[in-house]
Amino acid sequence: MTDYEQFVESIKKKTRIDLALYKEAQMKRRLTSLYEKKGYKSFIDFYNALDKDRALLDEFLDRMTINVSEFYRNGKRWEVLQNKIFPRLLQQNKKLKIWSAACSTGEEPYSLAMTLSNHVPLSQISITATDLDENAIAKAKAGVYPERSLAEVPNDIKEKYFDNDGSFYKVKNEIKKTVTFKKHNLLKDTYDQNYDLIVCRNVMIYFTEEAKDQIYDNFSKSLRSGGVLFVGSTEQIFNPSRYQLDIEDTFFYRKL
Ligand SMILES: C[S@@+](CC[C@H](N)C(=O)[O-])C[C@H]1O[C@@H](n2cnc3c(N)ncnc32)[C@H](O)[C@@H]1O
């Protein structure tokens, strides 16, 4: 077994996170730069240290998860969501069941609530948002963001749903109330069913082909027929019919 393989085994036992399902070269590079910066010589050395040090374990988790996000990421796709996807879904169902999977620090589920509020009252909106990383979830619940996270937010939405406090922007309670955050590991936990919309963006790029295949299959089973999977802008699915999905628009897939 290589040094890295032993590390993967030990981390799996300790945290139940299976690094073998993440692309190896990429993950190794990120973790090597972290342990070298900390003065360790090998993955085994690094594991022995983080096994005894909660702060170091948190740093490792932080490095492996990559929480970069922003509101209305790839703004044009959100226009399609607003003008094409939501109107169609709402014709079939007035109260949509929505899941933002791997939601990081909350920008994505809050953007969903804000976009959907152009069609229905906030009292009718309820979004489940999940991530593997509890620190990210805590930040999401706090709902406070630097100005740069809001670069793509339409002006009317910015005025309506954020309180500006110096260089920080706080999401208003009326929006926060529409989102329920939970911890969920896409590679291990069970998936809820009957979703109208699943949004999972900018996380599949980190997984192996085998892991992706399993996740797309799970997403497909979790969507009701006619429901939509919205993916990231580098993450198109090459063989959607394999998962009973059809292209509805670029980066939007409809369950058959
Ligand atoms: C780059 S962020 C994407 C955030 C948001 N979806 C977006 O597109 O802006 C990737 C997120 O995936 C989460 N993640 C990584 N592995 C995961 C897993 N196995 N299950 C659930 N979330 C995971 C990370 O914690 C991180 O918050």
Written overview of the protein:
This protein has 256 residues and is an alpha/beta fold. It is built from ten helices and ten strands. The strands form two sheets. Strands 6-2-1-7-8-10-9 form a seven-stranded mixed beta sheet. A three-stranded antiparallel beta sheet has the order 3-5-4. The longest helix has 18 residues. The model has no long low-confidence stretch (mean pLDDT 97). Bound molecules: S-adenosylmethionine (SAM).
- Which class best fits the helix and strand makeup? alpha/beta
Task: Give the overall pLDDT as a whole number.
Answer: 97
- What integer value in Å does the Rg equal? 19 Å
What is the strand tally?
A: 10
Judging from the principal axes of the Cα atoms, what is the shape?
A: globular
Structure annotation, total helices: 10
Uncertain regions spanning at least 5 consecutive residues:
none
Strand fraction band?
15-25%
**Widest sheet: strand ordering:** 6-2-1-7-8-10-9
Helix content: 40-55%
Distance N to C terminus: 44 Å
> Helix and strand string, N-terminal first?
HHHHHEHEHEHEEHEEHEEE
Biggest sheet: strands, sense, closure? 7 strands, mixed
Ions, cofactors and other ligands present here are: S-adenosylmethionine
